[in-house]
Batch of 4 targets.
Target 1
Amino acid sequence: MTVAKKKRYNYIHKSIARGTIPSILSVLASLATLTVTISLAAMSQGQGPMFLGALGITSMVFSVFALIHLVTALKDEGRNYLPVKIAGFIAGVILLIWITIIFVGLRLAA
C-alpha cells in the first residue's frame, strides 16, 4: 500500500520585480534619516545645526529614489510587485511627511 503525499502549494510563483531590493533599501535609508533628523531636531528644540537640514533633504532624495525604482519595477511584466509597491507606498508617505514639515515650517517662519 502506498501512502499519498500531501500536495504542497506555493502561492508565490513569480520572482520579484527588478529594482525591488534597491527600492526597499532606499526606503529603509529614508526612514532611518527621517527618524534621526526628527529626533535630533526635537532634542535641540528646533534650533539644530545645518546638517539636520541636509539629513532631511537626504531623506527626501532616498524616498524619491525608491519611487523611481517603483516605476522601473512596474515595467517588468509577470513579476511579483507586492514588495516594491509596499516600499513605494512607504516612500510616498515619507515624502508627504517631509513636504508637510517644510510647508508648516515656512508658514510658522512668515
Target 2
Amino acid sequence: MSLDMRVNVEPEKAAELVKKEIVEGSITGELIDYYVVHGEDDKRCIVSIYEKHYYRAGNRLTITVVIDNMEDGTRVHSTSGGGGEGLFRFDWGASESFERCVENALENYKL
C-alpha cells in the first residue's frame, strides 16, 4: 500500500505533523530513523521510518515516509509493509490504517 499527495506546508512542518500523529497519537508508534538531504536553494528531502504494533495484524508494521520540495511544492510519499501472516500476508487492513495516519496528519494542508 502506498500514498502520494501534495501539501501546502514546508517539509519540516509536514514531517513534524506526521511524527505527532504516529508517535504521540498511539501507544506503540515509534520513530525508527530520520534522515534529511539538503539540496540547493533551500530544497530538501526528508526520509522517516516508523514502526507500530497492530494487534489485528498480530505484529509490527513499518511505514516509510518521504517528504520533499525538490520540485514544485511539497510532495509526500509513503508506503507501509511488514504486516500479515502466512503465504498471502493478509494483515486485516492494518497497512491501509497505517497509511491513513499520514493522510490524517496532513489533511488540513492537502492540495
Target 3
Amino acid sequence: MRQRLGGGKCGAEVIVERSPQPSWTSSVDMLKRLLDLPSDAIFMGFGLECRISLRYFCRSSNQHARADNHWLDSPETAVTFSNWSDAQNAEASYPTSRLVLMFDLGDEIRVFPAR
C-alpha cells in the first residue's frame, strides 16, 4: 500500500510504502503469541473435543453415516474445520463437545479451548 504525505508550503513530498498483510496470517500470528507457541507452529484448524472424555471428533468415511462417527484419544486423526461457522455448526450437533484450536508443532499437536 502506498500512502502519499505532504505537500505544504515547502512542496516536500514523502511516499510511505507498507506491504499489506493478510488478516488470516496476522490473526494466527497473534494467537501464537498469546498462546506462547513457536512462530513455526502450524494452525491446523478448529476441532471438536468431548468435554466428558477429552477425546477428539473423527468422522466416518461414509459422510451420511453419522452413527459411525466416533471420538478418539489422539488429535492427530481429528476432523478439523477451516472456518468458524462450520465448526460451530458441528459443535451444535454434539452437545457434549467444545470447540478447540489445534496447532501442529512438528513433534506434537497442541490443543486449546477456542472460547
Target 4
Amino acid sequence: MDRNGAVSASSLAGQSGSSSQDIHVTSATISHTRSRVENELKEAVVFVRSLIGTVHVDSPGFGILGGMIMNGAYEGMCRQGDALLGDAEKAVDGWCQALAVAERNWRTAEDRSIVRYR
C-alpha cells in the first residue's frame, strides 16, 4: 500500500512480499470511491462528450473531393463517438447507484458488527 492508501496489484493478487498488507474495506472507502466516480469520472465523460459538437468540419474543410469521400464517414464517426460516450455516461451513473447501495449495505453491516457492552 502506498502513502495515499492505494493497494498494489501484487497484494491484490495474493502474492507475498515485504510490502503486502491486509485490505480493509469500509463504508467510508466506498463513499469516497463513489464521490470520486461521480465528481471526477462522470464530469470527465460529460466533458469529453461535449467536445464532439466542437469537431464539426464545415464545407469545404476536406476539400471538394475529400468532402465527397470523407464527410459522411467523418460525421458517422462523430455520431458513433457520441453514442459510445452516452453509453459510458449511463454506465458511470449505474456504478454510482451500485456504489451507493454497497455503501448503505456496508454501513449497516458495520453498525451491526459493533460490540456493545451492557
